[in-house]
Amino acid sequence: MARLVESSYGKCGVRLTKVVRDGERHTLVELDVQVILVGAFDKVYTEGDNSTCIPTDTMKNTVYALAREKDFDSPEAFAGLLADHFLEFGQVSCVEILAEEEPWTRISTDGGPHPHAFTRGGPGVRTCRLLAERGAPRRTWAGVNGLEVLKTTRSAFAGFHKDRLTTLPETHDRIFATSVEATWEYARAPRSFAAAFDSARSCMLECFAGHDSASVQHTIWAMGEALLARVPEISEVSIRMPNRHRLLVNLQPFGMDNPNEIFVATREPYGLISGTITRE
Amino acid sequence: MARLVESSYGKCGVRLTKVVRDGERHTLVELDVQVILVGAFDKVYTEGDNSTCIPTDTMKNTVYALAREKDFDSPEAFAGLLADHFLEFGQVSCVEILAEEEPWTRISTDGGPHPHAFTRGGPGVRTCRLLAERGAPRRTWAGVNGLEVLKTTRSAFAGFHKDRLTTLPETHDRIFATSVEATWEYARAPRSFAAAFDSARSCMLECFAGHDSASVQHTIWAMGEALLARVPEISEVSIRMPNRHRLLVNLQPFGMDNPNEIFVATREPYGLISGTITRE
Amino acid sequence: MARLVESSYGKCGVRLTKVVRDGERHTLVELDVQVILVGAFDKVYTEGDNSTCIPTDTMKNTVYALAREKDFDSPEAFAGLLADHFLEFGQVSCVEILAEEEPWTRISTDGGPHPHAFTRGGPGVRTCRLLAERGAPRRTWAGVNGLEVLKTTRSAFAGFHKDRLTTLPETHDRIFATSVEATWEYARAPRSFAAAFDSARSCMLECFAGHDSASVQHTIWAMGEALLARVPEISEVSIRMPNRHRLLVNLQPFGMDNPNEIFVATREPYGLISGTITRE
Amino acid sequence: MARLVESSYGKCGVRLTKVVRDGERHTLVELDVQVILVGAFDKVYTEGDNSTCIPTDTMKNTVYALAREKDFDSPEAFAGLLADHFLEFGQVSCVEILAEEEPWTRISTDGGPHPHAFTRGGPGVRTCRLLAERGAPRRTWAGVNGLEVLKTTRSAFAGFHKDRLTTLPETHDRIFATSVEATWEYARAPRSFAAAFDSARSCMLECFAGHDSASVQHTIWAMGEALLARVPEISEVSIRMPNRHRLLVNLQPFGMDNPNEIFVATREPYGLISGTITRE
Fold first, then answer.
1. Both A155 and A178 in a single domain?
2. Is residue D2 in a domain?
């Protein structure tokens, strides 16, 4: 009477710290890794037959063992090594790897960047996603989460649709604050994934700063266009932006004006705008 | 050079409290509502032309105004009213409504359930999702989030695939703890959405308690099967369960045994198991 | 030039699960324990001399080992055992133990409460705090965190101080919602800590429900008074209540009235009211 | 029978955004402010008499109105203005102001720091606390929260107290990661609160990086000493550091060594170390 139509399983929150020592100078990589498998696992569900089931505990071990065995210079490369490994199991038809990188940066000292001490940097967190389906070309995405930005002018929202339930006033000068979540697919590997990420993030920051925004939607499009123009290896980008509203405070009850100076930041409700932009 | 291939926007975190008074007895409904629209909004993105754009602020107003104007007896019914409203706009091709219900229950007193005082109940949070695509039949899902359960026995994990990176010992008696996230689609509306939800949640709790589990996967299947058997209006259910591990503590260094008595709860890493079960 | 004037250290987040088996019937206790020590540890700080330092890792081990070695029937009793243990170290002058109990309740089945399957219950989380200073009488507190309550009437806020910056209208009928955090000290041990806790929580829930509230402050006082009257072993109670505002939505722009029916819940800003009530 | 022995109340989460425009160049300040009052409010609690009660809603209004009326160049200065205001009420005996500053930094562009676009910076969040008791000298604290740091070497933990429950191995080379929470009191106002904060934070970062740590305690002392030496206006500092453990992964089951290269980051349990350092 019942049928299993979809299933997947894996390990989340595998937190890997790798320190590579080059004399006094240490390189630190911290990744939060997720491994998800799809495959011939139906009997695990329907019959309690675990013979094909690779324990999620083994996935965790694999992350640490591969990190020790292999050299890699990017989350994307490490994700590829993990995918290679899990596709060796015949029962696996698809491997998905997600990784978030802790944004550590070297502490500045009089003698320059410190060789082995770090502080949390940013802005935003670098992400990567790899999908390896048996028999299909591998797909690689990168992105940034929690890229918080705010501009105090050059943002408008006017000329919108009005109905009997509309009370929002039009504005030609508002604060625009958001936390960008962007994910882009690489049609082919860039020379350096780190450089491509830095380039993509800088491009989005500059575009956000410089764009004359008619709406959050309008800025998403501008950032997507700019990204495709800047990084040739990117074929498509999805951007999601919550509107972290800063509302003008009404000071009239206290006999004061408020010439776009005093705002209240609110967390909810919030607008959420999404768009996916591809090359023609 | 660039093209917008997908877009949607809406308002999240619209927190509605509605009090209905029947003499001394008050009914309290609290929903956290999300409205998402898809439609002819491309020029909002690509040209900064807002003429078709319904502000997310108006969506928020609409939630409160409709809640005042209309009677409804379930989140599903309210979601339907919202979808009706937004499909009246010609530029909208698809409306998605999500709602989570705060689980308030009446405070018990000597005189029985209190007429107007409540405390947060549970277990879990009732959810609903409605998808209204112009010209297509409406689809309605309900579900539960954060349904935390734990059993201290009748859970095993053995006979699994082993490789050189496997260290997990087999076990025929372990603690099984999870936080169930389940979403089911109604092929047709049940007589009462509230009763169907209660029935579905009870069914899952009883199944979790009574099932001889060979794995998290095995229990997902059992719960899905039971749900389809119990609530005839449900056509399909997706269940996701993180494994909230309780690991046996090694007390040997202190000269003690540990006959399945002392465990440590860990938050990460954690297994995450998913399955979708449908009627044949 | 510098002097250490205060110090303490310990282990937080020690998550203990203990299962006690009585035939088919299992008892489950889950505690999140914190151990804090004060004592002759100055040289650990100032000279890097660890000879008196009990590692926090040993504190963690101690929680698990004592949980295996000893029987206890309450968080308060277990905290006492831990304090006894750590005061055996000569360098320790004061031990503070904090414990939060996960509120598991048995799943209901046709055959009654299930012998070994549980779901997260509530309302609120039971807490305990023990302070054992060498040479001083031991002090024991219990409490509840996150006890979420809401009443839809019998709450007013009027007659308050007004100045040029006051805009809040007086109200004689509002929603009162809060999340109670209460901590009470036991002057002497009650016959049963569990029964005393249940009695205290019920008392606060009933008082919240029944009280004609003139303000959050007023209800704190009423709850404190009621608690001291109900549980004779309690000498003093501190209560803290955030005001989880439900604001009446202005529907006039849509041509609607709002007879105390439609509200918006806001998270911030929020009032925070505290009071400590003792016996005369 | 009951007596109110302590009480306070106030408003939390008052989120203020202030934009100051100097031609094209905008200055952005975002504070999360908390106002707490102590005073002659007993009858508010015990009799429901609100005549002395300043509504927390008025406190919120006051934050926005003063922000518009007054110029201020630091959270400390703004806290002082708020304290002045609330001490004008005769019923208030003590005002406590807390403020956290959102760490916005200008987006870098080819043309230098952007005049009106910002991204979230860091590291850590600047805090301030002011206590104004009627008739007593005002006290001012500043600090930093969430200052996340990690060093991959020059950290040891050895020579500690051992007992039958100790299993931790001694180590002379471990990773040391923490999130510093520091609060310092100013005996007198520095010329610039911003410069004093920057100096204090830099000093702590450099000290963390350069110190040969024998324990978390040892580093707290070193950082406290360094801070007092660097910023002459600071009279005392309290530092709290959770130990964000990075544990060496045991790779022996896979036939691999692990020469301090592969670690797992854990969130709980965690050591928590505190110390307060004052001038002699």
1. yes
2. no
Q: How far is C47 from chain D (nearest CA, A)?
A: 7
* pLDDT at residue B145 tops 90: yes
The answer to whether the Cβ–Cβ distance between C53 and D216 falls below 8 Å is no
**Residue A178 known to be catalytic:** no
In this prediction, residues C273-278 reach a mean pLDDT of 98
- Does residue D1 lie in a domain region? no
Q: For chain C, what is the domain count?
A: 2
With beta carbons under 8 A apart, name residues in chain B contacting C104: 150
Asked whether residue D95 is domain-assigned, the answer is yes
Two tokens at C45? 């700080």
Residue A14 has pLDDT above 90, yes or no: yes
Active site residue D161: no
Secondary structure (H, E, C), chain D: CEEEEEEEEEEEEEEEEEEEEECCEEEEEEEEEEEEEEECCHHHHHCCCCCCCCCHHHHHHHHHHHHHHCCCCCHHHHHHHHHHHHHCCCCEEEEEEEEEECCEEEEEECCEEEEEEEEECCCCEEEEEEEEECCCCCEEEEEEEEEEEEECCCECECCCCCCCCCCCCCECCCCEEEEEEEEEEECCCCCCHHHHHHHHHHHHHHHHHHCCECCHHHHHHHHHHHHHHHCCCEEEEEEEEECCCEEECCCHHHCCCCCCCEEEECCCCEEEEEEEEEEC
Catalytic residue among C27, C52, C56, C58: C56
Instruction: For D149, list phi and psi in degrees, rounded to 5.
Output: -135, 155
Provide the domain limits for residue D194: 145-278
User: A42-86 pLDDT, tens per residue?
Assistant: 999 999 999 999 999 999 999 999 999 999 999 999 999 999 999
Q: Does the model's pTM come out above 0.95?
A: yes
Whether A65 and A189 map to the same domain: the answer is: no
* b/e sequence D47-62, b meaning 16+ C-beta within 10 Å: ebbbebbbbbbbbbbb
Could you tell me if A158 lies within 8 Å of chain D, comparing CB atoms?
A: no
Each residue of A188-244: pLDDT tens digit?
Answer: 999 999 999 999 999 999 999 999 999 999 999 999 999 999 999 999 999 999 999
Choice among A27, A56, A151, A218 that is catalytic: A56
CA distance C278 to chain B (A): 26
Per-residue confidence at D1, pLDDT binned at 50, 70, 90? confident
Residue C256: inside a domain, yes or no? yes
Q: Closest Cα partner for A15 from A37, A39, A41, A33?
A: A33
Q: What is the CATH number of the domain that holds D232?
A: 3.10.270.10
Residue that is last in its domain, among A116, A137, A158: A137
ipTM value: 0.97
> Last residue of a domain, which of D105, D120, D137?
D137
Among candidate residues B18, B56, B114, B218, the one labeled active-site is B56
Q: Which chain C residues are within 8 Å of A251, Cβ to Cβ?
A: none
Q: What is the mean pLDDT of residues D110-128?
A: 96
